[in-house]
């Protein structure tokens, strides 16, 4: 807590007739069309059911919600759209992979909590989807309960997210669509009341430190520099995206092809993102309908420039190297840098950074540090099924998901930091350039045999599957130290200073490489039974094997069973008005083999590949002789985490006017991945193992009310909400040494702090409460107590309305979360006069600090003796509750009759806003990120867009 700023095709659910949370609608048509289409639920691996016969808990977000949004990743667009899923962006940097996606709470303390992602029927390693064009997505489905997820077995412990892309339709004419969107993004403001130039100088003068302490009050009053550093580090980001798609279909074949381009400027200077995508989806069938086949290929290329902090946690609290602090912490009495490059800056100030930090940060965003990522992605698969008899079908889907990432990072030859480091080494040349390349190939093949037959009132479907998954992952890094500014160019391989044996530690290049092969194999069977469309039973049993565990624990069995009762089909429900009233229940298990949470762009299946093996690595021994040391003490007893979940739910549709569902679930994770203490005789004090139990339970509900539906006017309102309670039930040994701990009986990542009571009016010292309930001015770590508070919100959801009137439409989406807490590090820094004394900007609130003549102040004395002890108190622990207007869209649909003889079918024009207003008591940039500390926040921007959709 006391962190100090360093002063240096599977699983798709289609909702029709208002059944979904965000029911699909066609805004190009102002007249509602009633279609008697039975809802279909596709649960994975070609397993389908009608909505009425489904036993699973799942929610789908349709293309109407996802498309035409200014978000690079589809994950940004689903916040507040469905109960039971928490989707938060921890960074507003364009193309960032810092997302927090939780389905029904945290299912693990140390292992990965990411859901399994399935795109067009195949498992993918993606967790950011920056190279997947949201305009190509047809549905985004969240599978939540055991009956829905256990079919995916070994990787479904945290839920499953299934994405299906758009397809053509049989017997359809050529349709050409063009979409364009232009957006302008601005940064949100903080409520820290930061000091202007004269205020900061006054605080420094009163504190007795910093530049202001060297000035007289008259000199302060006459000071005329007051820099708005937000204008130096931030900007209004411009973005544009263009999408062109073609679809058509004959009697036995159809096709969808799309081309997309996007470019986006970040709200912090020097950050941006560009993307190109190409997709082709082909489907076909034989004339007799027995053979069905399809091919899918999606290509993507993206390039982004981002700050070093995005992947370098070492500079999270570094005011010299992290430009995220530039707009807030730069002293406002300092003018912007007058130097055009880092060499001129270094020649002027040398290594004196104390009062020149904002100039160094300016040099960084002006090219002193370059951090560029490129990503090439190829997702391709082919599928076919053949109906051997009227009752027996065989099928296969095989494909690859290939991603190649390259990061080029450089401290520029003329960058200030390069020159400062070189001066410290007495080197003529500074800087370095690093190339990091990762190749990630996922191969997935699923083969199935399905038997389906009706026996009078009985319908039985039995299927058997074989699921093979193989990962090939490789990474290499090369670094050149020493760059000649005369001919160095970023990424060009020029200007490298040759290695000199006389100075072996200065210009020595380096190289590293890694390679991992990983795989899983699963075989499973499913059973579906229906009686008179009233009662149903679904069951799954799956056997999974993973390379990650010792032979004795390599295989695990997962299972689920689901039951339903279609109450509306009973005779006593005739005339009730219920088009559907279904009670369902499920119980089952799934597993988690991903031993640790992955970082950006890392496939979780390749992490800790040999955790059960003893590993030895080379090191330097006695008298610098080469030797070997124990790198990992293996544990052959290491096993899967197991999640057991029960669910009971009710789905309803009353006259097509009121639709929704309610679910209650309990989820228990046993055999938690956790460190196990062992004897230190081997110099290793812990090993990877299993111990502990974690519980999640909660309630979810969604509701849509179609209030008005006539030819000219449609109005519907919707809401969804979810409650989740998280508790650690057991653990072999607690570690309660930190300010954020996992304690038995409490939530995961619980704050452990002592209470802050305010200011002693007698002397301006801070007051705290010790462990015995006594007031103290000198608390210790032993005075901390468990607060029951964590960063994870207990309540999440969204609400809004949709209005259509004679072609005009107005759609809104609000999102909310409640019950989480974040320690606001940035606020603690700007309320600390110590930083003012080190020429860092602070809040003007400090002008109202305690003095002998201002004894009623609620802020301690600028020179309080116990300053700094508040770091392990709850003084800066705040709620992260918010209600956010996530999206609002206003537009008009031109009908074909209005367009007359124009060669277009329809035109839609609209204006929309994203993240436009947030109601919250949080003082910082953004309460959305779910994190214990508000370190290193790239704000999620406010975005206003104008766009058009044209169909030819």
From TrEMBL:
<dbReference type="InterPro" id="IPR037066">
    <property type="entry name" value="Plug_dom_sf"/>
</dbReference>
<keyword id="KW-1134">Transmembrane beta strand</keyword>
<keyword id="KW-0813">Transport</keyword>
<feature type="signal peptide">
    <location>
        <begin position="1"/>
        <end position="22"/>
    </location>
</feature>
<dbReference type="InterPro" id="IPR036942">
    <property type="entry name" value="Beta-barrel_TonB_sf"/>
</dbReference>
<dbReference type="GO" id="GO:0009279">
    <property type="term" value="C:cell outer membrane"/>
</dbReference>
<feature type="domain" description="TonB-dependent receptor plug">
    <location>
        <begin position="54"/>
        <end position="160"/>
    </location>
</feature>
<feature type="domain" description="TonB-dependent receptor-like beta-barrel">
    <location>
        <begin position="337"/>
        <end position="895"/>
    </location>
</feature>
<dbReference type="InterPro" id="IPR023997">
    <property type="entry name" value="TonB-dep_OMP_SusC/RagA_CS"/>
</dbReference>
<keyword id="KW-0998">Cell outer membrane</keyword>
<dbReference type="InterPro" id="IPR039426">
    <property type="entry name" value="TonB-dep_rcpt-like"/>
</dbReference>
<comment type="similarity">
    <text>Belongs to the TonB-dependent receptor family.</text>
</comment>
<dbReference type="Pfam" id="PF00593">
    <property type="entry name" value="TonB_dep_Rec_b-barrel"/>
</dbReference>
<keyword id="KW-0732">Signal</keyword>
<keyword id="KW-0798">TonB box</keyword>
<dbReference type="Pfam" id="PF07715">
    <property type="entry name" value="Plug"/>
</dbReference>
<dbReference type="InterPro" id="IPR023996">
    <property type="entry name" value="TonB-dep_OMP_SusC/RagA"/>
</dbReference>
<keyword id="KW-0472">Membrane</keyword>
<keyword id="KW-0812">Transmembrane</keyword>
<dbReference type="InterPro" id="IPR012910">
    <property type="entry name" value="Plug_dom"/>
</dbReference>
<dbReference type="InterPro" id="IPR000531">
    <property type="entry name" value="Beta-barrel_TonB"/>
</dbReference>
<protein>
    <submittedName>
        <fullName>SusC/RagA family TonB-linked outer membrane protein</fullName>
    </submittedName>
</protein>
